[in-house]
Amino acid sequence: MANEAKPCACDIGDKMDYGGLGDEVDIEHMKAYIVNPASSSEKAIVVIHDIFGWQLANTRYMADLLASNGYIAICPDFFVGKEPWNPSGDWSKFQDWLKDKNATNINREVDAVLKYLKEKCGAKQVAAVGFCWGGTAVHHLALRYPQLKAGVSIYGIIRDTEDDKYQLHVPTLFIFGEKDDIIPLDQVTVLEKRLQEKCPVDFQVKVFPGQTHGFVHRKREDINPSDKPFIEEGRMDMLKWLKKYV
Q: Name one GO cellular component term (predicted).
């Protein structure tokens, strides 16, 4: 935590002016953004948003990026209609806002999305990618959903609710920034050490030098030229991991 006035250092970063190439659909009790690849595919990625919600242009851009690489990409509203965090809000109230938005309490929504992907989209292989809050959610899914083919958790980590955070069932890539104020490097070190001791499947923990929270999806290369190689490498690592397992 950064300080009492701003208990979460997860600022908005660079918000893209981007409309998205996909469509919004209803899935049981929630809405979702979905984009299809140019050619028919049986492979799908569940994209899990950060605290700024499923409509954030940056996250939709990442979904479109995945679709351009041959995947059905779907970004559901895992807040189920509740307001996402507003970066101009009072950060002293952040923890109260977060109370009913537990990233490890999304099984009902995940079940509905997996059913939709199978029955409506013909998906036979599904993986999950998540950012920040969504990265924590991916960590959770890797522990609870062995039917998934892979996970990519980007600056997210389970730090409290799971009894055993390291017995993954799904090959998972964890991406972090060296200068992340939310996830200190000592926590990343513990995660990697415990995974080495306990994890029965393939995993990778990668830390990007000099990068802050949100760098993979909330920084624009044109206004962060020195960070551009790391942004591109993080996205490429995500795609390579998915290609390996999905």
A: cytosol
Residues 145, 172 contacting (CB under 8 angstroms): no
Measuring CA to CA, which residue among 142, 125, 158, 147 is closest to residue 246? 125
User: Which residue is associated with the tokens 């190439």?
Assistant: 21
Contact (Cβ atoms closer than 8 angstroms) between residue 216 and residue 185: no
Q: Is 77 a catalytic residue?
A: no
User: Residue 7's pLDDT is what?
Assistant: 42
Query: Under 8 Å CB-to-CB from 149, ≥6 apart: which residues?
Result: 125, 126, 127, 170, 171, 245, 246
Picking from 204, 49, 117, 136, the residue whose alpha carbon sits closest to that of residue 127 is 117
Catalytic residue among 8, 10, 75, 132: 132
Terminal CA-CA length for the chain = 35
Residue whose pair of structure tokens reads 């028919």 in the numeric block: 40
Q: Annotated catalytic, 132?
A: yes
Which pair of tokens denotes residue 143?
Answer: 């522990």
Of 49, 139, 140, 213, the catalytic one is 213
Q: Tell me how far apart the alpha carbons of residues 116 and 138 are, in angstroms, rounded to a whole number.
A: 19
pLDDT tens by residue, 38-47: 999 999 999 9
Residues 34, 67: Cα–Cα separation, whole Å: 9
Q: Per the residue annotation, which of 50, 64, 77, 180 is the catalytic one? A: 180
Instruction: Tell me: pLDDT of 202 over 80.
Output: yes
